[in-house]
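To close the section, here is one more complete example, presented without commentary so you can practise reading it yourself. The ligand is fe (ii) ion.
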Amino acid sequence: MFPRMCGSLRGGSDAHDRLRRQELLLGGNMKFEHYMPVRILFGWGRLSELGEVASSFGRRALVVVGRRSARRSGALDRALDSLKRAGVDVEVFEGIPPNPTSTLVDEGAEEAKKKDCDIVVGLGGGSSVDCAKGIAVAAVEARPVWNYVVSEHPSGALPIIAVPTTSGTGTEANPYAVLTEPNLKEKRALNRPPFTYPKASIVDPELTLSLPPRGTAVTGMDVLFHALEAFVGKRCNPFVEAVAEQAVRGVTKFLVRAVKDGSDREAREGMSLASTAAGMAINGGGTTALHGMEHPVSAHLDVAHAEGLCALSGPYLKYLAEVVPWKMARVAEWLGEDVSGLSEERAAEMAVVAIEELKEGLGLNLRLRDLGVHEDMLEILVSDTLSVMGHNVANTPGELDRGRIYEFFREAM
Ligand SMILES: [Fe+2]
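Output:
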């Protein structure tokens, strides 16, 4: 938690003072709020505790799961067994796709009401857990979930339990549920604390053992970008910095290992921890323009979220190295780069190169055109970034205008 002096970085006295000030996030006028109410149960085999945890919140659970993997891996059966053993009745809402829609959430809420469920369990990747969060809110007042995404504040929500089976979104540690409105083609976060925080999250690395290499790589890059964006963002605070560092160091050490050998237990554990740490980082620090630009891409084209992030990250990371070199220099250290004797500007460039090399090594050195983006879509993607994701743009360091965002998209083509 207490930062190092980082005396090895050169950059002139002003730059060095600024670096230290930023590391400490001090200026003699610190003011922030940090709220993280989720009970996190981390560890191998802890899925077996789901029933006991759930029984303190309700008697009948709607278990929200993805298309196949949780059933195929046996995770769903083990979850249902645990719930039944604890005397919790179960209803299964199955088949949640990536990029879940608000329409699907409304169907799930209808199901929860019809079956009289008083608790919602999200078991799966980010899409299943986010869908569960939406259902928990929409089931209380019988209102479309998109109302709560856009403007209305709910009066309550069913208790949510998150059981992630990927090491990626970190939704288990924050109040965000990313949903897509299919007619508007808008992808936004439902963010209604305290109601959309899970009451408890079971982070069991065993559940990630069956995640295939590509899924491990893609979700792992999401972890990296969550941590990096929370740290560089204007809302960063010292607690955000602490967990962001843990997440980036974890990705650096364990992501490639987990991709190469999915049965590497230490690597899986490290990535599960990194994912939850990064989820905590964005809980306090939010994400920035990178996520702001990606959401319109996956809303229009239904691509994997982190593939979009990888495609857009090149020009955006170069921008960060320009506007917050003292922060990107820290990121370089976390990425394992030897920055001793370097100016902060040079160290910041090394962070950009290290992330590019990581993407390359994972086969994720993508361009937007690889994901189906055409030049004639760029104007609408820029407009959506500014309108739908304006809060992310506002959290971005420096000053971004429409022209610069357009350039990011164009360079990423
Ligand atoms: Fe993300």
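Once you have examined the tokens, check your reading against these statements. The chain has two domains: 12-31+212-412, 39-208. Residues 1-13 have pLDDT under 50 and may be disordered.
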